[in-house]
Amino acid sequence: MSKVKEADDRFKKFGTVSFTSITKTNDFVDYLEDNKVMGTRCKDCGTSFFPPRADCHQCLASNTEWFEVSGKGKLVTYSKLEYAPIGFQDDVPYCIALVDYGDYKVFGRISNDLSEEDIQVGMEVQTVVNTLPNGQLNYVFTKA
Amino acid sequence: MGKVAIIGVGQSTFVRSYPGSIRELVFEGFKEAMQDAQLSTKDIDASVVCSAPEYDKQRSPAGVFAEYLGLNPQPTFYVETLCSSSSTGLKLAYSLVKSGLHDTVAVIGFQKMSEISSSESQERMGRGADIQWESPFGTMMPAYYAMYAKAHMEKYGTTLDDLALIRVKAATYGQLNERAVYRKPVEFEMFSDPENRMAGPVASPLRVGDCCANADGSACIIVASEEKAKSISKKPVWILGVGAASTSVNLAGRDLFTGLTVAQQAAQQAYEMAGVGPKDIDVAEVHDCFTIAEMMAYENLGFAKPGEGKELIRNKETYQEGNIPVNVDGGLLSKGHPIGATGGSQIRTIVLQLRDEAGDIQVKDPEIGLVHNIGGVGLYGNVTLLGRG
Q1: CATH architecture of B4-117+217-232
Q2: Interval B182-203: pLDDT, tens
Q3: In chain A, where the domains are located
Q4: A124: how many CB neighbours lie within 10 A of its CB?
Q5: Distances (CA, A) of A64 to A21, A57, B269
Q6: Do B252 and A23 touch (CB under 8 A)?
Q7: Which of A15, A85, A105 comes nearest B122 by C-beta?
Q8: Contact B140 A97 (CB under 8 A)
Q9: Which of B135, B138, B150 is nearest residue A81 as measured by Cβ atoms?
Q10: Do A3 and A12 form a contact (C-beta atoms < 8 A)?
Q11: pLDDT at B116 over 90
Q12: Which tens digit of pLDDT belongs to each residue from A29-40?
């Protein structure tokens, strides 16, 4: 009788298509299911990380805690895609963007609720959890 | 420790779909470089093979090429920095020769992108970014560079017309380059005609005309020690400076979106090593995978101040007869972009310029040339300075 240990592959639920399923930051997906977008912070030196990391390159510790990405950030730049890679064609058109929260930045998508006329570089946005049509989870930026 | 020279350059014709295998493709660039250097295979002490993985089915292509090119039993190995792989290969060859380990090294760059479909290829290019945290959003190379374009336009007032001018320049010279994929003229007006393919949207603000095309191709650069170069080469071109840098893969880890830090840093290193500055450069090849990439290169290399790159193209300063000719071989926008071969092709163009052998696109008496070759979305930066003998 072989004991097969089940892989913790929760991360496969992140994004329209996830390209990796196993990471020490798998709890990120549980938090998404709980409607929270979370980053990690090094408990030893206090550095904030987004995207979340299990290991701190500042002090080489692997002693992180989760914090919620909350409040307002500023839209740094974005692009609206008219073509998409394989697996994302049904999502077109969509905007990818970068948002600056001061201590850290967040790369993601802009909510489809915003039309392109509503999008301005420098505008204030917030980051919210989003369920995709295929049941996968990601996060998007909406007007703050 | 002596100087290090380039004594032979070659490249295949860049095509959309090469009618042969990768070893046959690589043979074309290699043959031209070996004939240029007037060497036989026993003169090559080692080979460095450069490409971005995933486009070919062959694992570890270096061994296959060493056999096919007659480079056994000499050592061979593989290096990769995405689109700047062959500049990285050149830097390694420089180190191997400079250290005295080898006298003559062949740098072989190649890519046969046509073995997979264009959309598959786009998917792979998207995975050149952070596959854990970025790719799940559906990212593509044009969209990343488009984000830089948007930021540059917002901050500096660079316009879509400025970007179109860069493509028009590329096409001016692409028409003269028999090795280029895209050899048709491109008129400025095409970008304002919604029916024209050039104006078609890809990833805002970038349009079809702002993007280079995938291609199949190979290039080869023969690097030699000073002693060897002087004994066998009539026109050695000297490697004066090599610079390279890296940055965060995920855009969230970066602070600058109106330029590429890796290009600034690599340029600074190369200038310092060569003891020259931007004003000393007589001819340059820059990594124009997208029009905005050339615009940022003007500024990151110091040809223009930040935000003033647009003045260079508006005033045609980067044309053949301008103050600082850039990409007068048509650039990636015309030649196409066979990832691992691109840097080698850029180096070849500058070597031919410095030897006064560039034909129709020859600039007047260049002493120092520059190659700017970027891997990924500003992930790996490489700047190489070359000088005539």
Answers
A1: 3-Layer(aba) Sandwich (3.40)
A2: 999 999 999 999 999 999 999 9
A3: 10-68, 73-143
A4: 14
A5: 20, 12, 36
A6: no
A7: A85
A8: no
A9: B138
A10: no
A11: no
A12: 999 999 999 999
